[in-house]
């Protein structure tokens, strides 16, 4: 049976990516070696990381003022690297918005290194909306926001004009729709939400903001190290980055970010249309802030949970359970999820209403 994978991360990837990765594990580019046993310094490995970096640049129209790097440690290490690279050693200050669990973790790390000004928070309503109408002070070293709140199903639909460097955690919606990279100073994203397998992180950084904090930054944590070494400062995960490279090639071949954005809108409209139409369910996020990537919803009558769970599991749907902080259900509709999978879920929701409504 075909599995419809609605997992919030690690994400579904196109079948051709799995096929090509499997082939490379056995025999990489007909070299007779597995991709897992070759040196990351070999020319054909070097080509993988160079291609992956170039694909990020092409797909996101990254301007020459910015560089793209691949590192490890997940988005969680970026919570640490951002203040290390941008927050001044003396009197360091940063502004954050608190829009969910990941934003909270980012704030926690920054607080170890300086003063953090939380400009706005949606904690009062269990993060079911995106706070708006705050202003960013000009006396902070940077402003940090989270574009898509994976757990709570909310998404920023626009970005503020910032008088200070603008930093964004785009882990769960990077390359899902066009963004103007020139507006940002740092964009980062753990690969496993919308770009590839777990094991690498993409950071896009504006070069001229670096080297200004007065901090002695540990080598690995310094963006300048990875820029200078073309993301090959130390042993990088060749298989994981190869997966990202293949997925980005897939995305480029189908028409790039503008094309996938259209498909993502169509999937989200289908999903939310049903959540709103169907009397058995309620969406948990404020309508205007709903995420195109992660749709969160709950049953109106919790006593029917076992019945609904049985139905979607029998239809081949996997990983639909919501995060424990929200409960209910979360349909993650990342780039590689086909609209046919959303249709299968919508059909099950209709059938459930017919049976139990
Ligand atoms: C998953 C996620 C993270 C954490 O990513 P790791 O790579 O596991 O550290 C951070 N931010 C957002 C928005 C996420 O969805």
UniProtKB/TrEMBL annotation:
Keyword Ribosomal protein annotated: no
Cofactor: pyridoxal 5'-phosphate
Entry note: cofactor: Binds 1 pyridoxal phosphate per subunit.
Similarity annotation: Belongs to the class-V pyridoxal-phosphate-dependent aminotransferase family. SerC subfamily.
Gene3D superfamilies: Aspartate Aminotransferase, domain 1 (3.90.1150.10), Type I PLP-dependent aspartate aminotransferase-like (Major domain) (3.40.640.10)
Taxonomic placement: Bacteria, Pseudomonadati, Bacteroidota, Flavobacteriia, Flavobacteriales
GO biological process per UniProt: L-serine biosynthetic process; pyridoxine biosynthetic process
Recorded GO MF terms: O-phospho-L-serine:2-oxoglutarate aminotransferase activity; pyridoxal phosphate binding
Entry EC number(s): 2.6.1.52
Ligand binding (pyridoxal 5'-phosphate): 75-76, 102, 150, 169, 192, 234-235
Catalytic activity: O-phospho-L-serine + 2-oxoglutarate = 3-phosphooxypyruvate + L-glutamate; 4-(phosphooxy)-L-threonine + 2-oxoglutarate = (R)-3-hydroxy-2-oxo-4-phosphooxybutanoate + L-glutamate
Principal location class: cytoplasm
Domain of life: Bacteria
HAMAP family: SerC_aminotrans_5 (MF_00160)
Protein name, entry field: Phosphoserine aminotransferase
InterPro entries given in the database record: Aminotrans_V_dom, Pser_aminoTfrase, PyrdxlP-dep_Trfase, PyrdxlP-dep_Trfase_major, PyrdxlP-dep_Trfase_small
Domain Aminotransferase class V: 3-345
Subcellular location: Cytoplasm
Modified residues (N6-(pyridoxal phosphate)lysine): 193
Positions contributing to L-glutamate binding: 41
């Amino acid at each position: 049976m075909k599995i419809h994978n609605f997992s919030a991360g690690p994400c579904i990837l196109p079948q051709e990516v799995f096929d090509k990765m499997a082939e490379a594990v056995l025999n990489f580019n007909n070299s007779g070696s597995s991709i897992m046993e070759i040196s990351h310094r070999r020319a054909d490995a070097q080509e993988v990381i160079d291609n992956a970096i170039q694909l990020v640049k092409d797909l996101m129209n990254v301007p020459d003022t910015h560089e793209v790097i691949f590192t490890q440690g997940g988005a969680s290490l970026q919570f640490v690297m951002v203040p290390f690279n941008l927050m001044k050693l003396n009197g360091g200050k940063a502004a954050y918005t608190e829009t969910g669990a990941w934003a909270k973790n980012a704030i926690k790390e920054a607080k170890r290194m300086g003063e953090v000004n939380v400009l706005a928070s949606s904690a009062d309503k269990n993060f079911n909306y995106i706070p708006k109408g705050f202003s960013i002070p000009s006396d902070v070293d940077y402003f940090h926001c989270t574009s898509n709140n994976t757990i709570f199903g909310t998404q920023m639909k626009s970005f503020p004009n910032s008088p200070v460097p603008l930093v964004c955690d785009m882990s769960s919606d990077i390359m899902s729709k066009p963004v103007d990279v020139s507006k940002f100073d740092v964009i980062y994203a753990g690969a496993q939400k919308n770009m590839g397998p777990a094991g690498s992180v993409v950071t896009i950084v504006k070069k001229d903001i670096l080297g200004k904090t007065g901090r002695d930054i540990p080598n690995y944590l310094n963006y300048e190290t990875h820029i200078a070494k073309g993301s090959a400062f130390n042993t990088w995960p060749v298989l994981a980055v190869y997966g990202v490279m293949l997925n980005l090639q897939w995305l480029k071949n189908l028409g790039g970010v503008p094309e996938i954005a259209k498909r993502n809108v169509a999937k989200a409209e289908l999903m939310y249309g049903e959540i709103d139409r169907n009397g058995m369910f309620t969406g948990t996020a404020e309508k205007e802030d709903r995420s195109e990537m992660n749709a969160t919803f709950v049953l109106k009558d919790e006593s029917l949970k076992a019945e609904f769970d049985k139905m979607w599991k029998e239809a081949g749907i996997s990983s639909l359970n919501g995060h424990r902080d929200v409960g209910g259900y979360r349909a993650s509709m990342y780039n590689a999820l086909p609209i046919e999978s959303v249709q299968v879920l919508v059909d099950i929701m209709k059938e459930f209403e017919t049976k139990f409504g």
